[in-house]
Amino acid sequence: MARRLLAAACLVAVGAGGILHLAGAPEAGDLALALGAGLVLVPLTWSVARSLARRDVGVDAIALLAIAGALALGQWGAAAVVALMLAGGNALEEAAAGRARRELRALVERAPRVAHRIGAGGSVEELPVERVEVGDTLVVRAGEIVPVDGVLTGAEALVDESSMTGEPLPVARERGDSVRSGAANAGDAFELRAARPAAESAYAAVVRLVRDAESRKPRFVRVADRYAIFFLPLTIAVAGLVWALSGDPVRALAVLVVATPCPLILAAPIAFVAGVSRAARAGVIVKGGGVIELLGRARTVLLDKTGTLTLGAPEVARVVASDGLPAEELVRLTASLEQLSAHPLAEALVHHAVRNGLPLSFPEQVTEEPGRGIAGVVDGRRVAAGGARWLVAHGHQADGGPPPAHDEPGRATISVAVDGRPAGAIVMGDQVRQDAPRLVAELRAAGIEQVVLVTGDRAVVGTEVGRSLGLDRVYPDLSPGEKAQIVGTMQQQPGLRPVVMVGDGVNDAPALALADVGIAMGSVGATVASETADAVIVQDRVDRVAAAVRIGRRSLSIARQSVLAGMGLSLAAMGLAAAGLIVPIAGALLQEAIDVAVILNALRALRD
Q: Could you say which of 60, 149, 304, 504 is catalytic?
């Protein structure tokens, strides 16, 4: 805000000076122009002095010399225009950075601050969200933001998760489903049992990521800052030589004026900050412009398997039915029985049946040996499901032997018997994400040279996934430390770095922390993976990794274009000024046009 006020004050002074000159009061006009230049010169002098004290020479020093020199030589108009250019450029940077951070700030501003807890006797009390405890029953009213992560205890809920996942349509949740904080209630009020405190909920984690964002200065921007190391002495040398050869200090001043590219150096950070904003809209929270730049230069992407390339949860891979029983009926009978089991495979099977619209019946006479098998009566038929050996041991497979596919690598098989006879098997497995094949193709199209799988799973499983997706290499059976070693080894090869690591679990955290860019996949809860990563994908889509790389490529390209174009135009203008073809006031206007142009070019990184 201070930069904008200073720019506004300077603009008023310059405007008043111009009007007074046109009104036939040149002395008053010159005074107004000098006042406008002085408004900028005072804070600029203090800023340059502090930089010099830190031995940090920036191009602001050129602007200081130009404004001071113009005032000393009575070039009031040139001094005022250079001052306005500098103040306006800084204000433009502030406005652009504010626009680029809008999506991220919106997340913080939406953070829920109160919750409504159902107390004894059914009364509802309002309390600060920080006081919500695990197990509390909350009511989320229509239109409210879900305050903490929890489990739906009511019949159903309609929630808008667009701020967390980018999904534009509200989604229906049923009893027992997880609901993440930050989602908005798009339907009637519903009850929620708190699963974790507010400080550890998904939304709180996103807010922490937002507050960490834009804190790292990218290397490319530091190179642009060091531009002043050679440009400042070059400018002074050229101006001094022009003065010595021509004897005209005004011509030397013109050189200083056209070499005042202070807003130009803002072009690179604006492009990277814009990339942060663009990534946020694509569903990737990035911790700073430096990460965007590294994504733009990345050559290698390492991918974890479980939860990253695969769904990370058991799904029905295929159904093998026998004894004349249709596959859908086999699934329906088994899922009906498994409704009373707490086994993860049972839960996955029930969800599969519900999603596919199979009418489940309530089982009777159910007995279970946890982890081994379950038996009961469904619609008058005796159904048993579990391991093949367990079924045989309980007399359910007197003939036929175990169902096929029981030894498939990376799969789990639920063998099923109906009325004492083998009825088939349901093969469960961790399915490859539908967008995973598209990810690999898009990464290669974006210029990634190596796409590698690093997994703690067995070699046979990792090789199968790597082959199906067309990955370059597969490293199986890795511990967390060994994953980090793979990252370090690739970083030591100049042709393979920068290295991006994508993972979703605690076992990926060391590799995520060591990689040039660590990207946490999936949930944005308070996990070690998301805390140690440089970016977090808040949509359940692995192809967002390729989107982040593309955004990085575009932002880096635009930053380079802006810096190189601005430097070239400034040097050309210096040549014209040295030849006496540009007077100070014209040089100031020309340089302002150059700087505004390259900054506007940098803002293109906000667009697709």
A: 304
Helix (H) or strand (E) holding 286: strand 284-286
Which of 311-325, 435-449, 491-505 is predicted with the least confidence, judged by mean pLDDT?
311-325
Chain-centroid distance, C-alpha 135 = 31
Angle between helices 289-297 and 544-578 (to 10 degrees): 100
The strand pairing partners of 114, in sequence order, are 128
Q: What are phi and psi of 13, to 5 degrees?
A: -65, -45
Classified as helix, coil or strand, 179 is strand
Show Cβ contacts of residue 110 under 8 Å, excluding neighbours closer than 6 positions: 145, 163, 182
Which structure tokens are listed for 59?
């191009």
d(Cα 432, Cα 61) in Å, to the nearest integer? 57
Does residue 136 have an active-site annotation?
A: no
Pair 363, 336: CB distance under 8 Å: yes
pTM for the model stands at 0.66
Residues 542-594: tens digit of each pLDDT: 889 999 999 999 988 888 888 788 778 888 888 888 888 888 888 878 877 87
Residues with Cβ within 8 Å of 425's Cβ and at least 6 positions away in sequence, in order, are 319, 320, 388, 402, 403, 404, 405, 406, 413, 414, 415, 416
H-helix segments, 120-218: 162-165, 202-212
Of 424, 433, 392, 385, the C-alpha closest to 405 is 424
Quick one: tokens of 447? Answer: 């210029």
Whether cis (ω within 30° of 0) applies to the bond prior to 359 is no
Structure tokens at 152: 């739906």
The pLDDT value recorded for residue 490 is 92
Nearest to 264 by CA among 574, 572, 564: 564
Cα 298 to its chain centre, rounded Å, is 16
Do 480 and 462 contact (CB within 8 A), yes or no?
A: no
